[in-house]
Amino acid sequence: MNVIIMGCGRTGAILARSLSNSGHSVTVIDLDRRNAASLPADKMASGDIRVIEGDGSTAEVLEEARIDQADLFIALTGKSSLNGLAALKAKQVYRVMTAVAAVKSTDLGSVYEGLGVACVHPARLVADQVIAAVPQILLQTDIQSAVAPATAERQGG
Q1: pTM, full prediction
Q2: Are 102 and 15 in contact (CB under 8 A)?
Q3: Is residue 25 helix, strand or coil?
Q4: Quick check: 53 pLDDT over 80?
């Protein structure tokens, strides 16, 4: 699968490495080539991971990234609106099969999802992982401990 990732922060770099290790062709786009320093040098040297410096929302950079050959476009910059618009452009203008945008607002995510862009909400993903990591019995005990004093106060105790 040909994957383009816009944004080479921690998440983008981890995702690029993982997808490349799974045999996918990965192109990473970032405004600053220095952000690619965390990518595996051997994967970049072999061409398994390509790095393009530039604005991943522009036609020039997307075409340099070979968006016409992409199966998946993932926008992971720190700017939700930029992610959504770039993913929407990939999906609707360049006809990329799947486009994903990281967005912080569920309201904004709903708008992009209605236009065919899959959205991930980083804060929600972290919260879900924390909840999954906490043993259910511990969670119930903590909730009961927090509720008991408040209940006692309301009852005059």
Answers
A1: 0.82
A2: no
A3: strand
A4: yes
